Every structure is written in structure tokens, then in C-alpha cells.
Amino acid sequence: METRNIVIVGVGGQGSLLACNLMGKALMLEGYDAKVSEVHGMSQRGGAVVTYVRCGKKVYSPIVDKGQAELLVSFELLEAARWFELLAPGGTVVTNTQQINPVPVIMGLAEYPENLTDKFEALGAKVDAIDALTLAEEAGSSKTVNIVMMGRLSKYFPFSKDTWDKALEAVVPPKFLEMNKKAFELGMNA
Amino acid sequence: MKSLLLGNAAVARGVYEAGACVASSYPGTPSTEITANIATYDEIYTEWAPNEKVGMEVAWGACLAGKRSFTGMKHVGLNVAADVLFTISYTGVNAGLVCAVADEPGMHSSQNEQDSRYYAKSAKVPMLEPADSSECLEFTKYAYELSEKYDTPVLLRLCTRICHSQSVVELSDRVEPPAKEYVKNPQKYVMMPTFARPRHPIVELRILDLKELSEDTFLNRVEMGETDLGIIASGTAYQYVKEVFGDKVSVLKLGMINPLPEKLILDFATKVKRLVVVEELDPFIEDHCKKLGLKVSGKDMFSIIGELSPNIVAEKFGMPYNDGKNIEDDIPARPPVMCAGCSHRGLFYTLGKIKATVIGDIGCYTLGAAPPLNAMDVCICMGGSVSGLHGFVRGGGKNVVGVIGDSTFAHMGVPGLIDIGYNGSDSTLIILDNSTTGMTGHQENPTTGVNIKGEKVGKMDIETMCRACGIERITVVDPNKLAECEKVIKEEMAAPGPSVIIARRPCALLKTTKSSPPLKVDEEKCTGCKMCMKIGCPAISFKNKKAGINKTLCVGCDVCTQLCKFDALVK
Ligand SMILES: Cc1ncc(C[n+]2csc(CCOP(=O)(O)OP(=O)(O)O)c2C)c(N)n1
Q1: From CA B520, how far away is CA B560, in angstroms rounded?
Q2: Which end of chain A is more exposed for a tag (fewer CB within 10 A), N or C?
Q3: Does residue A109 register a pLDDT over 70?
């Protein structure tokens, strides 16, 4: 079993911690060796957040280095661009098309780059872009963007629906479980 | 049972399984979740201490009384606790005492990049370094055995990538050893010169015994592969080496960082043609090898600065790796910012407006140094604002204030304020009381009157504390009321003698903080003057020459409305 490298990126506050825990749970249920990194501290204050998921038979490094990620999952479009160099040749960018302006753009000191997904493709990446914010709202809350994206990511893993359901049950509080299950499915089927 | 655990959670599990009964720590990234996780085990009395020195002393007291104990901290926390460490090295322990210290190569959330391994060496205590969560658990448990067998506190060295990555661990049951009896023994525990002198040779003999252990402990292991290249590594560096080479090259993996083995290293060196030490930060292991007379590479290949990574290791050894492609566009930075509704924002706007020199401190409020607020001049270490302010004033500094958070004030700010009260100076200190330890993820602290378990307990009253330090002028303000706040700050800066201003408003992210409905922009009235942009609120943007408000972020704190001269920001 080749080691698989996945990078999940987003903006602090978008719930990458929960996404990581979900991924870790699913990998455990499927019997992988896995390393899942989390981000704490400064980066939670609306900063750029990157987390790594690695799985296979025996995983060493806890981080995914430049040019190594088979999948770059981004909860926000600009973040996909920021971390693009982590993508391996021929890898796939799975991204939310939502744009969240960083402070320099808000202040008019920088421009939010345009046509990013075209640029990813021009650099040889496959792009799988969905409007996760709309889907999250459809599921019941804009806060479920992370789970919508994880639903999308699930298409790249040969895991049963049952595995994902169990993983969701393990990491999401019961009160929000139905909404999150819906968000997951909307992402998967979008 | 197998489980995927964060390195920090695995350390906590180790503390639990080893039967420890007392844990006392001060939060600090990346170590915080160790103690937060320990608190979930009811068998262990767990507390947030006001600072790391206190935490280590509590752990020491508990181990003396006979129960295994724990304290955890970030690397700079060990500077604060160092006074304790160097002398409990002499007294030794009764039941086991383990101290986890988490370094931050790369400074993801820290003010420096110090290498804690030197502490173990100079305090002459053993230090273990796990390389994944499974070792975090195993080494922690073993550290308690070492602690008791060798009568010494044991340091567990972690780093960000170990603390904050989850990997698979095998869980076991908790085994609580019977409490050890406390036996009065002043020769061992009262470290005055006559008793401390005979303790020193005991410490030196102990480190020799530990050196012997290091030669054949399971903590250090040789993984022989091809013999052209032999690499010595520990912790994350070991993982990166294995990532690049797999089982191809020979590796000496060190799990015991102090004392380092001699025979084991010399023996490994004779088996390989070329010897390289791969380690993050300083040449700690490399220097040891050189002292053994070995020809070894290390910092001639790898930087002394920042983190390593698999690609860096591959590159330095001339191994193939992908470098990834970059988007050509400039990607605008996304720096961390004060949250929408942050209680610190208004205050730093005011300090910027009056062009005060601000002697700052560490916490969320350090973001007051970032644009567009640009309202902090100095920040070094926790508590440094208070004494630094006093010195700045004594050194002739004018138009100056100090700022410090509530948790930081309780941590190390009080002794500085005692200095100000005692020796007197025209210092104006602003205590930013947001009812939480925000920076590290909302821990309770002595000023909140709630403990780590969420129970109501004793409360350090900030006003009373300031008064007890000898400060007579104490004013409480709401930092979001800009005009009032400015007036008070100016008055207190002008007043002779010391004064304290308590800027009190709870953190906007606390569950108990009520938010108001988001504001709207009255487009007719908005002239596009950008006054509201001066506070760096992530909820306010500027488009088509008008301000705009992000309604999912805005909590209606009303700081921006006070800046708008045209009443264009409305409810
Ligand atoms: C000696 C030391 N221990 C711990 C830390 C980590 N740390 C930095 S700021 C901070 C707490 C800040 O809390 P507070 O002063 O209440 O300010 P807030 O973040 O809430 O604004 C902590 C624990 C540190 N930098 N140095």
C-alpha cells in the first residue's frame, strides 16, 4: 500500500480541526496507519491554516512536503493557491469556490487573484471545484462548509458509506449530526 | 485497544496509565492540550497554575508527598521554571515527577526558537524525546520508572510536529502504584549550602549511572541498513530521515537525549563509512559526537534555524524529490488578526491615535502591533511589559504605557507591579481583562475564578491585587467606549505616580459573551472616507468606494460606529 498524502487547507475558524478528526477516524476504522496533523495557536485567529493527512501501511513524516500531495483540499479558493506547491505532479485540487478576503485585500493593499482554477489547470493539476458555501447553507448552516468538503474528499477514498457515517457520529456532537450528515452527502454528490 | 491520538493526548494518556495523581501546568502552544487532556481523567487532580514555576513546584510538592505528578509547558515556560528544575535535580523526588517541555522550531506561535535540550544537560537530569504518539505514551510511562529508580525529575522533550500530530497508539489500563510515604529528610530536601554540597556529587554520580543506562536502553536503537551512510537522529528529524531513506541507510535513533550514550555512538560510527547527525535547531547531538572525537557532519549540511522537512533532508543528501510548482500570482498574505468584536481592538486604536509608546506583552493583544493598528512597540516575554515600562520610564521614556493581558498579569505581571508600587514611577499600566487566556485557546486563569474543570473557585481580584502592590490610582474602563477610554488614558498618563487602568470587556468568542445584531452600511451616508478601516476589523471591507459589512462576522461591537463621522454604520 503506497502512502497517500492529503493536505487540507483553509482559513482559521473554518473547522479544519473537526475535518482532520473526521478523516483520522475514518482511516482508523479502515485499519490504516495514519498521521494527521492539527493546527493550534496563532493561526486560529483567521490566519491561513494547513493540516496534513498521511495514511498507508507505515507512515513516518507527520507533514506533507512540497510536491507531495496527491490531493489538496481547500475550504477557500485563495488558500488552494497559497498551498498549491504542496501538490504532487498530476495531483487534484479539491476546492471550495468561496472567496474569503484576507485583511490586505480588505484594506485595499492587495488584489485577490483571478481565475485561480484555470491557473491550477494550466500548471497540470486536476481541479474539482464546488460551491461548498451554498451547499452548506442548504444543509442548514454555513458552518458546515468543512463537512461538505470532506464529503467531496470521500469520493477519493474507497471507504463505505458506513465508515463515514460512523466517523461522523464519532466526531460531531449528536445535536448537529443530522445536519452534518446532510452536508457530507451534498458535498459527495455535488 | 488502538486509538489515533494527538501527541499531546498520548502524553496525557501516559501520565494517566502511569498512575499519576497530580498535574499542574500553565498553558503554552504547543504543549497546552497535554494538561487539557489530563483534566479529562477524573483520577488525576489537574489544575492550571498561574505560571510554569508554580506548576513545577506543585508537581514537586505532590511527588514529595508520595504521588506521581506531572507538569507541562512550552519551551519558554521552562525558562520560568528553571529555578525550580536546577535545584529539584539536587533534591530528587519521592514518587516520580515528569515534566514535558515542548519546543517550537519554526516559531509557529512563539517568541523565540530556543533549544530546551541544553536545560537537561545543565540541570543534569534525564531527557527523553519521543518521535510519534505511540512513543509519547510509552516514553511518558517509562519516564516515571526512571524518575523513581534514579531519584530525579525527568524531562520529556516534544516539539510542535509531535505535539500536534495524531498517530496510532495502543492503550492500556491505568496502574496506580501505592503512594510512597513521605519521610522527613532535611539533608535531601532542604537545599541550604551544608546540605546541598553533599547532594551535588550525588547528582554527578546519577548522571554517570544514567549514561550507563543510555548505552543499552530500548529508548535508543540501531536500525542497520547499508553501511555507506549512518545517520543519528531523534524526534521528527528521525521521521524525516526514514521518510526519505526508508530502511536503506543505517540509523541510530536516539530516544534518550540526556545523557547521550558514548559507546553506542562510537560503535555505530565504526560500522558506517560516513556519519551524519540530523537534528533540528542547535548541534546538540553533533557536538557530543565531536567531543567523542568522531568525524561527523551536521550543521555544515543543515540549518541551525527553523524546522526540517522531508524535502530538506532529501536535498541535503542529494536524493530525488519533487519541489512542487508555484502559482505565479502574488498570493496576498492571510495574517492572524484580532477577531471581529475583539475587546482589544478599540484600546489599540486609541493608543495609536494618541501616539503612545506601548510596552507590550504576550497574548492575543500582541496583534495590536500589526497594521493597521501598529500600536505596540515592544514585546519580549510574559510580564516583561510591567517591569519594562517601569525601566523605560526610569530611563527617561515619555508618553508611554504598558499593556498586559489578565492571564499574563497573573503569570508574571504582578512582581513588576510590586516594583512599580514599591519603587514608584510615573508608570501607567493597562491591564486588558478579557476574562480568559485567549491566545492559547480560552483556558481559565486565576482572574476568572473558574478552574480547569469549569468549577467556580477562588478568584484573584485584579483591583485588589493592584492596590496590594501599592497602586492607588486604579480606573476601570470599557475599551469599546473610545472617547471615555482615551480621556482616562490621557489623564492617567499625565498624572504623577503610578496608575493602573483595567480595560475590562470579555473576549467576543466566549460562549457567555452576548453579541449584538450585525451592523449595516447606509450607502447614502457612506462617503468612502475609510475611517472605519483604521481598526483592522475583518468584518469591514471596502468595495466600490463604500464600506461593506460581513454580516456573518460582525458581532455589533459598535467600535466602528464611533469612528464614522457620517453615521453611515447603522443597526
Ligand atoms: C513563559 C510563557 N508561558 C506561556 C506562553 C504562552 N502564552 C502566550 S500568551 C499567553 C496567554 C495570554 O493570555 P492573556 O494575557 O489573558 O491575553 P489574551 O490572549 O487573552 O488577550 C500564553 C499562555 C508564553 N509565551 N510564555
Answers
A1: 11
A2: N
A3: yes
**Fold held by A4-101+114-189:** Pyruvate-ferredoxin Oxidoreductase; domain 3 (3.40.920)
Neighbours of A57 (CB within 10 A): 9
Residue pointed to by grid coordinates 515527577: B97
B430-468 burial: b if 16+ Cβ within 10 Å, else e: bbbbbbbbbbbbbbbbbbbebbbeeeeeeebebbebbee
Question: Residues B18, B49: one domain?
Answer: yes
The total of structural domains in chain B comes to 4
Note the Cα B256 to chain centre separation in Å.
23
Give the mutation candidate from A45, A52, A117 for the B interface (greatest B CB count, under 10 A): A45
Query: Do B187 and B52 share a structural domain?
Result: yes
Using the mean position of ligand 1's atoms as its centre, give its distance from the Cα of residue B555 in Å: 25
Query: For chain B, which ranges sit under pLDDT 50?
Result: none
Other CB atoms within 10 A of residue B326 CB: 12
Are B93 and B126 members of one domain? yes
From B197, B216, B235, the end of a domain falls on B216
A-chain residues near B372 (CB < 8 A): 107
- The reply to whether ligand 1 has any atom less than 6 angstroms from the CB of B406 is yes
B interface test, pick of A52, A63, A117, A121 with most B CB neighbours within 10 Å: A63
Question: Each residue of B338-378: pLDDT tens digit?
Answer: 999 999 999 999 999 999 999 999 999 999 999 999 999 99
The model's pLDDT over A11-65, given as tens digits with 9 standing for 90+, comes to: 988 999 899 999 999 999 999 999 999 877 665 678 899 999 999 989 999 999 9
Alpha-carbon gap: B108 to the closest alpha carbon of chain A (Å): 7
Q: Does B3 touch chain A (CB under 8 A)?
A: yes
B412 CA: nearest ligand 1 atom: 1
Tell me, yes or no, whether B103 and B37 share the same domain. Answer: yes
pTM for the predicted model, two decimal places: 0.97
3-class secondary structure, B199: helix
**CA B7/CA B552 separation, integer angstroms:** 34
**Residue with grid cell 563509512, as numbered in its chain:** B273
Task: Collect all residues with Cβ–Cβ distance below 8 Å to B514 and sequence separation of at least 6.
Answer: none
Chains A, B: CB pairs < 8 Å: 185
- Residue owning grid cell 553533533: B286
Q: Is ligand 1 within 6 A of the CB of residue B31?
A: no
| C-alpha B464 – ligand 1 centre gap (Å) | 22
pLDDT at A1 over 90: no
The whole-number pLDDT of residue B262 equals 98
User: Of A185, A179, A144, nearest to A164 (Cα)?
Assistant: A185
- Reference B541, options A41, A18, A106, A101; nearest CA is A106
- Residue at B95: amino acid letter: A
Q: Which residue on chain A is closest to B133 by alpha carbon?
A: A35
What are the structural domain ranges in chain A? 4-101+114-189
Angle between helices B345-353 and B482-494 (to 10 degrees): 50
Asked if B85 contacts B30 with a C-beta cutoff of 8 angstroms, the reply is no
B329 inside domain: no
Residue B6 pairs with which residues in a beta bridge?
B166
- Cα B435 to chain center, whole Å? 19
**Is B524 within a domain?**
yes
**B97-103 and B154-159 beta bridge pairing:** parallel
For B489, the domain range is 345-504
So what's the ipTM on this one? 0.95
User: Quick check: CB of B27 below 6 Å from ligand 1?
Assistant: yes
Distance between Cα B230 and ligand 1 center (Å): 42
- pLDDT value for B542: 86
Q: Whose CA is nearest to atom 12 of ligand 1?
A: B363
Query: Does a structural domain hold residue B322?
Result: no
Tell whether ligand 1 has an atom less than 6 A from the beta carbon of residue B438: yes
502591533: which residue's cell? B369
Interval between CA B409 and ligand 1 midpoint (Å): 9
